[in-house]
Amino acid sequence: MTPSRTRTKPKPLSKSELAGLNAWFRAANYVSVGQIYLLDNALLERDLTAEDIKPRLLGHWGTTPGLNLIYTHLNRLIRQRDVDAIFLAGPGHGGPAAVANAYLEGTYSEVYPSIGDDGDGLKALFRQFSFPGGIPSHVAPETPGSIHEGGELGYVLSHAYGAAMDNPDLVVAAVVGDGEFETGPLATSWHANKFVDPTVDGVVLPILHLNGYKIANPTVPARIPRPELISLLEGYGHEVITVEGDDPADVHQQMAAAMDQAHDLIRAIQDEARAGKRSLRRKQPERPRWPMILLVTPKGWTGPDKVDGVQVEGTWRAHQVPLSETRTNDKHRAQLQTWLESYDPGSLFDDEGRLVESVRALAPVGTRRMSANPHANGGLLRKPLTIKDFREYAVPVKAPGGSVNEATKVFGAMVADIVRDNPESFRLFGPDETESNRLGAVYDATTKVFAGEILPVDEHLAHSGRVMEMLSEHTCQGWLEGYLLTGRHGLFSCYEAFIHIVDSMFNQHAKWLNTTRELDWRPPVSSLNYLLTSHVWRQDHNGFSHQDPGFIDHVVNKKAEVVRVYLPPDTNTLLSTMAHCLASKHYVNVVVAGKQPQFDWLDAEQAADHCARGVGIWDWAGNDEGDPEVVIASAGDIPTLEALAATAMLREHLPELRIRFINVVDLMRLQDEREHPHGLSDRDFDTLFTTDKPVIFAYHGYPWLIHRLTYRRTNHDNLHVRGYKEEGTTTTPFDMVMMNDIDRYHLVIDVIDRVPGLGSRAAQLRQNMVDARRRAKEWTREHGDDIPEVKDWKWAEEVDGDPAATSGTSADFA
């Protein structure tokens, strides 16, 4: 869609406007260089000495002047047009620029009063950068105005588009580094503009900064012939506005014109779309061609041209610290002083070290400052999710195992109501798997978003909606993170095996949450919630490539304060778990639940109690009467099924054997209370699992994780865990569990082998179990299906005791 209105050519900057912009640009560059190098003498009141220089020079200069230029001109746009904007720095380690501009705007001193807006404050600002006890060199959580670190490359556009969703007046300026341009996640996220609805969403203004080099090599986009690169960007759906040069006065003129032109086009697209919505126009709108800016400036611009006779500016040598020996090399130190003096700090700061009023006045005011914009501190804007009591969706359970449901399908109705009740603050994200993961009920309340052409054959597809699907886990994760960090709520549904694609993105978000827990000026944001389904035990049809439960192992490596893992065994426990997770704040919640038909074990009240405890005894399954000879435990829906089936056989054939059955829904309850807020005390753990009895544990994932979580427990030596051990293929569901020795027959064998004195008494039963495994395998190979005694198994009434509420230790489910 190209708006029909005529766009006027932007007027050139006046002499005073140009001088003002250049003054801010010089100030930002000066403060950036000072952060990289200086311990003292922040305003060059005397010649630099070795003691003025940091002993370890850490930082990245090369990208910084380009970021400062962009920030300078965004501020002009904000001031002149009252634009609501935030700034995302994609280039790696752009921290000096973001911190410098937040300081010049006054926000830094407001957030951190110890870093004042005078000479002492400037010295403290310089000292803390990349210094022990200070701040990192990237745009970290500690940086006001940041929702995107830039420490790991590839996510700036997906974060930006997530921030723009449901923020109709917000402009998200997303600077893409030309090194970042080469990453896979960034490549897919160019297509996020096909998911923007100009009637309800804000806009992302991508700014691709070509400075030519990364750490030690040229960048691909910088070496592509310019027409080819512009054609590529136009092919992504953008109108490209180019700014190029190395003369500051000329570049300022170009950049001001580019910003005006881009904003004119943005407003024209939005005005036309919103006018069309108001007129109830039925014609399918053409997809907008949103503007972007291609900025081409030298790497390390305005820095040292040459060092020791070698070209630095405009080369890869400017990437990090151009003058690396300033503490020990007099010539380097003198060159650093010349570099700093080139920005004329005496005209920028007064005698007390404060920014002069003429430059200070160039900053936007209040929350229009990008460093103080509440959209970049989403906890300020977050409102609690409106969510009904999960019991309204619960399935009736008259007796354990007496009914069958698809847990995620039932949960889909709950998601539909969450969408209805939170029409502007909740979205569902996933890579083309909403239907596959049985969440299709959400389409009773909303549609999938797609801004392109929609054909009659398409289902649930519209230009507006709350379901975001793109076959890139990276982009979905980035969208959700951007949405959460700007104060909203969401859910990411994905196949369990392929959530590994975002392992590193999860790392970064978990680290962000952990850091911001210590920043009292950043209120908590909504939790990042994963629903992992189509899991390892029911990927029998897709085969080995789709079988991997290891994301849980990856998650529990992170700080205990921010990670939670839940394995609900049936429909009602899934509903209870998700209600809790979706309402929670500042965690990463991982919930693993199958989508296939499965038995219902607990009614709504039992499920609520069980989830509140996180772990508990299922009295109806066992017969230990408070004095077990063996504990059978489970975590996960299929392991619970197999553990219960094994328990039923043992109770039938060895009725005198006293069995305690324990189910774990909150995996972190297994950990020591000193290691995780949800951990059980040693007393409570020993009460449940005993101090000296065999424990046979059927676990959803890799078995060694359970040992890792419980290695300090008194009874750890008696703990025997069955789980996935990297055996799989395209086969039947029961053959999958047999391949990994977590099947009911093998669990019975484990009990016989580990309960003292049971071996000889149960020799015949053990032999029968071995034979049963062989028969089941032969049947599968002959008939292509599971053996009837497994496929048709149910919890027998003669085994089923009083289906009372489960019991266990109490714990806060928070």
UniProtKB/TrEMBL annotation:
Enzyme class: lyase
Record InterPro entries: Phosphoketolase, THDP-binding, Transketo_C/PFOR_II, Xul5P/Fru6P_PKetolase, Xul5P/Fru6P_PKetolase_C, Xul5P/Fru6P_PKetolase_CS, Xul5P/Fru6P_PKetolase_N, Xul5P/Fru6P_PKetolase_ThDP_BS
MF (Gene Ontology): aldehyde-lyase activity; magnesium ion binding
Domain Xylulose 5-phosphate/Fructose 6-phosphate phosphoketolase N-terminal: 14-380
Domain of life, per lineage: Bacteria
EC number: 4.1.2.-
CC cofactor: thiamine diphosphate
One example of a Gene Ontology biological process annotation: carbohydrate metabolic process
The family this protein is said to belong to: Belongs to the XFP family.
Protein name: Probable phosphoketolase
